[in-house]
Specification:
Strand order of the largest sheet: 3-2-1-7-4-5-6
Distance between the termini: 32 Å
Number of helices: 6
CATH superfamily: Bifunctional nuclease domain
Order of helices and strands: EEEHHEEEHEHHH
CATH class: Alpha Beta
Oligomer: single chain
Number of strands: 7
Largest sheet: 7 strands, mixed
Shape: globular
Amino acid sequence: MDIEVRIRGLMMDPATSMPIVVLKDVASETVMPIWVGIFEANAIAIEIEKVSAPRPMTHDLTRNLIRHMNARLERVVISELKDETFFAVLWLRQGEEPMSIDARPSDAIALALRADCPIFVDEQVMQTAKLNTTGPPDGPTGEQLRSWLEGLNDEDLGRYKM
């Protein structure tokens, strides 16, 4: 079963200065962080803030290609967590033909925002990630991080924003 999530925040990890996308279960207070690259975080931030680029960015181009091929992005699923690396799947439909495409979660999230489609996390991934939240090796412990993320409020998110 997949759990629908929304982006709770996009912020810099105060311990490592790496970008984090914080996903929150829409039906509970469960949060799940995903560390992403700076360019992917920027692509997500641009769409969250509705900043218009003078030319299409990579995720805009991908969205446009999907549309021009008479397909639509129906959902993205963060489907697996292996060796502390998350994996995602893009679920598209072209006519009556469903398609799944492997993707990095950061790209999947950036594309989902542009295509206005839901983001899901596999239930097992959510359970594993929320219980064993680990950041970069030099970062805080899993318990410290989980406690910190669950305690964030809107004021905190503003302090650590990208």
